Amino acid sequence: MAVNLDDPSGDVDERPQRRREYSGASSTLGVAALIILTVGVAIWWFQFREDDSSLASDGYGVIALPADLNPTDRPPSSEVGRVAPDFLLASTDGSEERLSAYRGKWVLLNFWASWCGPCRQETPHLQRLQARRPDTLVVLGVNQQESRDTAAEFVEEYQLTYPIALDLSGEVSTAYRVGRGLPVSMLVDPTGVIRELRIGRIDEEDLLALEAGYLE
After folding, report:
1. 167 φ, ψ (degrees, to nearest 5)
2. Range 146-151 average pLDDT
């Protein structure tokens, strides 16, 4: 008999030559499945980044606003009363969206994502607003770091006629101080100055009030 030196009680080990207990095939298979899943996710992620990386690095993001387009004496900022930071982003239809291109119209900037429930709830109201005011206002949706395909599916699902810009890098959202608390909407006047900031879901009553206060 052998004494188990690791046991402070000094008990005798009746099977000193026994093999270490095997935990079973399920444990080994579980580890293997975890490794396969991790590798699969990594491949998907890098493929996604490769597909859209050119959109995020090809001059898109916040851009300088020409001095003659700034009606204030202060730098652009996402605050009410300040001129909105200009940006250039790719769109779901293959074109580009530049905020300053809409000077002369009211712009309702709407920061959203397809996973955001309140964003989905307010989208039909935004589409109706765009249909009511095609000549004086444009709703400009800014998608939060989702792929072009995901945003395009959203456009098709809700039959949107207003443009959607793709903020793949998150640079524009950062400049506008938009976090994960979506949706966030900002009403920009025809001179580029932010007049209203709304955090959270907008409903039909809210939009009618904005129209009555600014567009009538």
Report:
1. -90, 70
2. 96
Whether the ω angle into residue 183 lies within 30 degrees of 0, i.e. cis, is yes
Q: Where do the structural domains in the chain lie, given as residue ranges?
A: 23-58, 61-215
- Cα 155 vs. chain centroid, distance in angstroms? 15
Only one residue has tokens 């270490």, namely 20
CA dist 124 and 112 (Å) reads 13
Which residues 6+ apart lie within 8 Å of 84 measured at CB?
A: 76, 78, 99, 107, 109, 186, 188, 192, 193, 194
Superfamily of domain 61-215: Glutaredoxin (3.40.30.10)
Q: Which token pair is 161?
A: 């006629």
Q: What is the pLDDT of residues 161-175, one digit of tens each?
A: 999 999 999 999 999
Q: If you count them, how many residues does the chain have?
A: 216
pLDDT for 18 equals 47
As a whole number of angstroms, the distance between CA 31 and CA 39 comes to 12
Helical H runs in 147-193?
148-158, 171-175
Going by C-alpha positions, the residue among 61, 129, 93, 101 that lies closest to residue 192 is: 101
Dist CA 9 CA 119 (whole Å): 65
SS3 206: helix
State the pTM of this model.
0.74
pLDDT band at 38 (very low <50, low <70, confident <90, very high): low
Q: Is the pLDDT of residue 4 over 60?
A: no
**Residues identified as active-site:** 116, 119
Whole-number pLDDT of residue 24 = 53
